[in-house]
Amino acid sequence: MKFERSHLDWLESEAIYILREVAGECANPVLLFSGGKDSIVLLRLAEKAFRPGRFPFPLMHIDTGHNFEEVTAFRDARAAELGERLIVRAVEDSIRRGTVRLSSREQSRNAAQSVTLLEAVAEFGFDAAIGGARRDEEKARAKERVFSFRDEFGQWDPKNQRPELWDLYNPRVHKGEHVRVFPISNWTELDIWQYIAQEKLAVPSIYYAHRRRVVRRNGFLFISKNQEKGEELSVRFRTVGDISCTCPVESAALDASAIIKETITSRQTERGATRMDDQTSDASMERRKKEGYF
Questions:
Q1: Hey, how many other C-beta atoms are within 10 angstroms of the C-beta on 83?
Q2: At CB < 8 A and 24+ separation, what contacts does 263-267 make?
Q3: Which residues are within 8 A (CB) of 231 and not within 5 positions of it... i.e. 6 or more apart?
Q4: In which order are the strands placed within the sheet that holds 29-32?
Q5: DSSP assignment letter at 190
Q6: Per-residue pLDDT at 257
Q7: CA 278: distance to chain centroid?
């Protein structure tokens, strides 16, 4: 009987190949793990690439200090379950050092992560940072190579990236430079949820429908704060970034199969529906990436 490989099989094989290329070609890589769904999938792919041995890289999270408690708790529990080293570096520490300055304590810290990430890359001498960005998320991310070169200032130049013909990757960097590597670049949000369902992966509870008090503004749902009355709705989060700029969506989906059905019929992109910091300017994501963002 002829064995037919599925779409997910091909994506999985490609990602495992990329992870092994990083391990084989880079001297000191790190895998960025936030506890979000994309990095959860990355961990599963790393398990398939390297188990029963240990991962050939540590895990690292850049903590904004404005994370959902459910996500950071999941992050810590999953790293402990795998028995892998987890490095956490905080934007709050960069604020204390004076390398990050914000106009207010409540300001979104998503962009500020760039500074803390580059400080961590320099601190540990990482020459490759593996991340869970996908090309379907946002048009600036669609310009990324799988191996995305960053100069000695951590900057990304979309016009100065290396060719990747026939899936041949060039990770060579000079001292102070590094590459960001995106093994799931070719995956979509739908692929991620189909893989989560296929592999029966646990994810933070806020990805599924739950009751939460929210306020409607400009077509978005915001988490109700302080004395805001708002309304209580059944919602879930499609992405779990900085609390200050991440909005939930109305949903009744209680499991991965229900989310798959919602994703198939959704007319809004994942970040377009939920991330307010991506709405300020058409070039906002590209500008942040040039400054060192994930």
A1: 8
A2: 263/189, 263/190, 263/193, 264/190
A3: 213, 214, 215, 216
A4: 86-90, 59-63, 29-32, 128-130, 178-181, 147-150
A5: H
A6: 96
A7: 15
Which region, left, alpha or beta, applies to residue 83 given φ > 0 means left and ψ of -120 to 50 means alpha? Answer: left
Q: Alpha helices, DSSP H only, in 83-188?
A: 91-97, 113-124
Please state the pTM of the whole predicted model: 0.89
Which among 108, 24, 27 is positioned nearest to 293, based on CA atoms? 108
pLDDT for 210 equals 95
What is the mean pLDDT for each group of 10 consecutive residues in the chain (294 residues)? 82 97 96 96 98 96 91 96 96 88 73 88 95 83 85 83 87 90 95 97 96 87 78 91 85 96 84 56 58 61
**What contacts 69, CB < 8 A, 6 or more positions away?**
none
Distance CA 164, CA 18 (A): 12
pLDDT at 275: 57
Whether the CB-CB separation of 16 and 45 falls below 8 Å is answered with yes
Residue spans of beta strands (DSSP E) within the chain? 29-32, 59-63, 86-90, 128-130, 147-150, 178-181, 210-217, 220-223, 231-236, 249-250
